[in-house]
Amino acid sequence: MVLAKVIGTVVATRKEPSMEGLKFMMLRQVDAEGKESGSFVVAVDAIGCGVGEYVLYASGSSARQTRMTDKRPCDAVIMAIVDNWEVGGEFKYKKGVND
Question: Domains along the chain?
């Protein structure tokens, strides 16, 4: 799993028929401090997240192991919205406080 921030949406009106009905989100990886640090990825939203939220996503074959993405040509899926994280006993992010 990778920690990322949802930075936008992706709309594709024409796509592989098995991908119909899926929502796509643009993510950017973040470091332990919450600073955007990694590359961008488009991921299927399996949980109903929104722009600005921190999420966990999986990629590769793991991305096809959710109910929503099973047997679909998906390489990244958002599977959790992050409520908080801490490093060394110090909270780096708390939803609703750091937003």
Answer: 2-94 (2.40.50.220)
